[in-house]
Design goal:
Blueprint: E1 2-3, E2 9-11, H1 33-36, E3 42-43, E4 53-58, H2 60-69, E5 74-78, H3 84-94, E6 98-102, H4 111-123, E7 128-131, H5 140-147, H6 149-157, H7 173-187
Length: 192
């Protein structure tokens, strides 16, 4: 279901990928403005706790797959590459602890990667971000078909932070130490 900012369902129309009947056509049909409306919408619920870990993907197939594989994390999906920035602005407003972004790789126009980087810049300084680069061209579903569940889970679970949240000197010493500990752990070191 497509949802609004308030997690209200906007549209639940069933869509079948064109690839099911015609393998030579693109993998999935694009949502039209008629389906999505002109308001903001995304896949997944935007009511999340501030200490939540979010997996942020592009497109319905990747959203469904990530929701099935990562049931212990919040999964949010942009309806297209260009909608990633709008969804990032909403995620920023909610302030989760960590966002793992999995953009499409190797699109003809590089749109998935370009918009994901813009979305990361929107989130930068507010949350920790893991920009996950898929090992081969395609999207998360393509990598899943190629590599299987285990490799997909390892890729996402072991992703290192690429954009670190700003530490405020107004934070408590415990918060600052926890942030530094996490930064050192990501780098493979421990704080003494």
């Amino acid at each position: 279901a497509l949802r609004s900012r308030r997690s209200e369902v906007i549209n639940v129309s069933r869509r079948a990928g064109a690839v099911d009947q015609f393998p030579e056509l693109p993998k999935s049909l694009q949502l039209s403005n008629r389906d999505a409306g002109t308001e903001f919408c995304c896949f997944g619920r935007l009511n999340l706790a501030q200490d939540a870990d979010v997996i942020f993907v592009e497109g319905a197939p990747d959203y469904i797959l990530a929701s099935l594989l990562f049931t212990d994390q919040v999964v949010i999906g942009a309806i297209s590459a260009s909608h990633q920035l709008r969804v990032a602005e909403e995620i920023k407003r909610l302030g989760p602890r960590l966002v793992k972004m999995i953009p499409h790789r190797g699109d003809r126009t590089q749109a998935g990667e370009r918009y994901a980087e813009q979305a990361a810049l929107t989130l930068q300084g507010v949350v920790d971000i893991c920009m996950i680069t898929l090992p081969s061209d395609g999207d998360l579903c393509d990598y899943y078909q190629e590599a299987g569940v285990g490799k997909v889970r390892r890729l996402v679970d072991r992703a290192a932070v690429t954009h670190r949240k700003d530490i405020s000197l107004g934070d408590s010493p415990q918060v600052i130490k926890a942030e530094l500990d996490e930064a050192y752990r990501s780098a493979g070191d421990e704080v003494q």
